[in-house]
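FORM 7B - TANDEM STRUCTURE REPORT

SECTION 1: FIRST PROTEIN
SEQUENCE AND TOKENS:
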Amino acid sequence: MQDWIYVFIGGGIGSLCRYWIGLQFSNFNTDFPLGTFVANFLACLILGLLIGMQLKNNIANSTSLFLMTGFCGGFSTFSTFSAETLQLFQDQQYALGLCYIGISLIIGLLAVYIGLKLHSSI
């Protein structure tokens, strides 16, 4: 039962951080969903760092559940990404929607990789 609490608290903190980032980027006058993009990028970067820590230092299970499953899971948002992409397509902004998909995928993978490399150089 204690594992659920770690995930619950980490997820709540991650969700609050994602909400805050969304607010910070809500004033940008753009059709590109910048807040979600930045939150997902940062979540991937943090997750890469944490995976590096786990591989190198063997993080405790409770820490892994709190930070990786909880915080990163609550901080990143695939569902919002999907809904925003669908909205772009419904608004007939096909190029922007495809660009959002491609950039999000490439940057997300790159961020995890950079996080792993950053940790290995520490």
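SECTION 2: SECOND PROTEIN
SEQUENCE AND TOKENS:
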Amino acid sequence: MLKMAVLLSGSGRTLDNFHERIKNGSLNAKIEVVLANVQDALGLRKAENYGYPAFHAVGSEALNAIIQQYPVDIICLAGFLKLYEPPPALAHSVINIHPSLIPAFSGAGFYGMRVHRAVWARGCLVSGCTVHFASEVYDEGPIILQKSVELAYGDSPEQIAAKVFAAECEAFPEAINRVNEQGVEFFWERLRSGRMA
């Protein structure tokens, strides 16, 4: 079972999903602490209501000072909208979800509705999400899992976002379970092997 720190900036929809799946036994993890870089983030209030230790902190140093007080195996970025630098001991253990099929519509400047508007503007008929380990370069860490969704000709950016978020709700917990089964370094070694081939 993986022990998680959850970092968020907003409403905590992904936290809701984690909490429900831990309760029903489909996510083999435990939330040790929840942190937000936005003081009035709804996700912080939800965390408190769920009974998780919940803190507001700004900047990687302040966040890490809190995280280091808890027995954490992985850090999940659940709608965390700032660049985050983990403590050295957890440098390979930060998991993010991106609302496209990396490498499409990824990298600096591509996040949230910006991604879905770009997908819509290009007229894509497939989108999806990618759960990956975070590295020092946006969206270039090892991929854990991807899920695709079919899009209709008339889908608006908002409809695309809704379809992709539904896929995210399945993908993020499934990816965490895979990390629990395979171990963190399996995915980093897989990426290194692929780049050396």
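SECTION 3: OBSERVATIONS ON SECOND PROTEIN
The chain has two domains: 1-91, 97-129+147-197.
The mean pLDDT is 94.

SECTION 4: SIGNATURE
Preparer initials: ____
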